[in-house]
Design goal:
By secondary structure, the chain is mostly helical. The protein contains 20 helices and two strands. Helices cover about 75% and strands about 0% of the residues.
């Protein structure tokens, strides 16, 4: 099974090269992209089954053993992230094909879109599988380089301006990350995470804390954690709908994944739990207050994206198996639901010509299927029982109550308040855009939405419902993953020979 580990990275890269060669063959480009991402999804499912039954699956790239060589590791956490990210990227690709991204030169030239999208996918999967800090950095840079192209597709003034902000912030976070990697190597003589799990414990508390905070700052910017989250609501809404959707679903979650991985494997013990709890609470509350104040659908979803990152950080801050399991479950839930909502925003824009709430109305009567596609994930995001959003939040809040203490109690209250305000924001969108009388945008002649766009969005809605139906088995996987993360031993033993210190 170790031969399968590199495939989620290699297949999209080979697909990107092939689609670039097929510049003048758009149908073949689309076929190659779909086959490549479908293959990646199948491989990811196989790796998850293997990791769940037999432990982490490891491959030493080039035959060089760790800690000298590059190592790719598919443990339960990484494999689970691979499965959900592969499913989401495949659905978004189908949506973009339906939207005609490969046929409209102004918004997404075919010679650029498909290769870049596949490179982005390879960067995401490489980050999930990376077994050392430098390869994690490489994964970030691959996905960021591709995202720089995707976020400015079309070259309009607005996209270039907001894309410039995104590029500057991304480069800054990458510089901080690279500096942290250099500092870690200088202090320990290695960047292999399994080896660092032992060597960092030998450092003085001050040096160790400095390294931990530097990495947290770099990952916090990438994850859009308050107070370094202001760039996201200004950058994401201007990109094409499929690009915004995959950014919202995956890019910030790669940052969250990096926080989970490093805080459990490299810096266990919860030395900065108090700081993380404060940051988590502010992220939740400030983000959702921003959403409540917006009048554009994409900006509302952008602020809810920031807000709900706080739930995941809260789970990490608890430093318990229950907290980590809740955080992992919520990451899986949020990747699916947030991506779906941005695809729905694209459908609203295609049908009504605008996402400005002041120009929308009557969509429930004019486009009832579109209303259903919005309502289900919106209620899921708000945490209405029995959806997966409710189950994920319930698990996190129960873990907070079990932890005891003032800060966890405050975070439980902040989480409940954020959920109520999310329901308010979703209800406001429903009442204005879908329920009230038609306005300027929706009063225009009917526009037939491409079936592939609607079908891909519906598939993600069904995936969100499937997470609810399969919540029990999924929670068992997340609890096992969290237990392994807390123990660290399964990961370290799978990567390092017994005699390597």
């Amino acid at each position: 099974m170790s031969a399968l580990v590199p495939l989620p990275v290699v297949v999209p890269l080979l697909g990107a090269a092939l689609t670039l060669i097929l510049t003048n063959r758009p149908r073949l480009q689309r076929l190659v992209s779909v086959i490549g991402l479908t293959t990646t999804l199948v491989v990811a499912v196989a790796l998850l089954v293997q990791a769940y039954r037999h432990g982490p699956v490891v491959v030493q790239v080039g035959g060089w053993p760790a800690p000298v060589g590059i190592v790719l590791v598919a443990d339960q956490l990484a494999a689970l992230m691979l499965v959900v990210s592969s499913a989401v990227t495949l659905c978004v690709l189908l949506y973009s094909i339906g939207q005609g991204r490969g046929e409209t030169g102004e918004t997404a030239p075919v010679s650029i879109y498909h290769p870049t999208y596949l490179v982005l996918t390879a960067g995401v999967t490489n980050a999930f599988l990376a077994g050392d800090l430098f390869n994690l950095f490489v994964g970030f840079e691959i996905l960021l380089a591709a995202s720089f192209v995707l976020i400015t597709l079309g070259g309009t003034e607005t996209r270039i301006r907001t894309g410039s902000t995104y590029v500057v912030v991304s480069i800054l976070s990458s510089m901080i990350f690279l500096a942290a990697v250099g500092l870690v190597y200088a202090a320990t003589g290695t960047v292999n995470m399994a080896q660092l799990a032992g060597r960092l414990d030998a450092l003085s508390p001050g040096v160790r804390l400095a390294l931990q905070l530097t990495l947290l700052l770099a990952f916090g910017i990438k994850a859009a954690v308050f107070p370094v989250s202001a760039w996201l609501p200004d950058s994401y809404p201007t990109a094409p709908a499929p690009v915004t959707a995959v950014f919202a679903g995956l890019l910030t979650k790669v940052g969250v994944y990096a926080i989970i991985r490093t805080e459990t494997l490299l810096f266990p013990g919860g030395q900065v739990s108090g700081l993380l709890m404060v940051v988590a609470g502010l992220t939740m509350v400030v983000g959702i207050l921003g959403a409540a104040a917006q009048s554009d659908l994409k900006r509302i979803f952008s602020f809810t994206l920031v807000s709900h990152i706080g739930y995941m950080i809260f789970g990490v801050a608890l430093s318990s198996v229950a907290g980590l399991a809740g955080a992992i479950f919520y990451v899986v839930h949020h990747i699916t639901i947030q991506t779906t909502l941005f695809l729905v925003a694209g459908l609203v824009e295609a049908r009504a010509g605008s996402t400005d709430l002041r120009r929308l109305g009557g969509l429930a009567r004019i486009a009832p299927l579109l209303a259903v596609l919005f309502f289900v994930p919106a209620m899921n995001l708000a945490g209405i029982p029995p959806f997966s959003g409710f189950l994920g939040k319930l698990g996190l809040l129960q873990a907070g109550v079990a932890a005891g203490g003032t800060l966890p109690a405050v975070l439980v209250g902040a989480g409940a308040l954020t959920s109520l305000l999310t329901l308010y924001a979703a209800s406001r969108v429903w009442n204005i855009a879908f329920w009230r009388a038609p306005r300027l945008a929706t009063a225009r002649p009917a526009v037939r939405l491409p079936g592939l766009m609607v079908g891909a969005t519906a598939a993600l809605v069904l995936l969100g419902l499937a997470l609810t139906l399969a919540a029990g088995p999924l929670f068992r996987v997340t609890v096992d993953a969290a237990t392994d993360l807390r123990q660290r031993t399964p990961y370290v033993r799978a990567v390092l020979p017994v005699d390597v210190p």
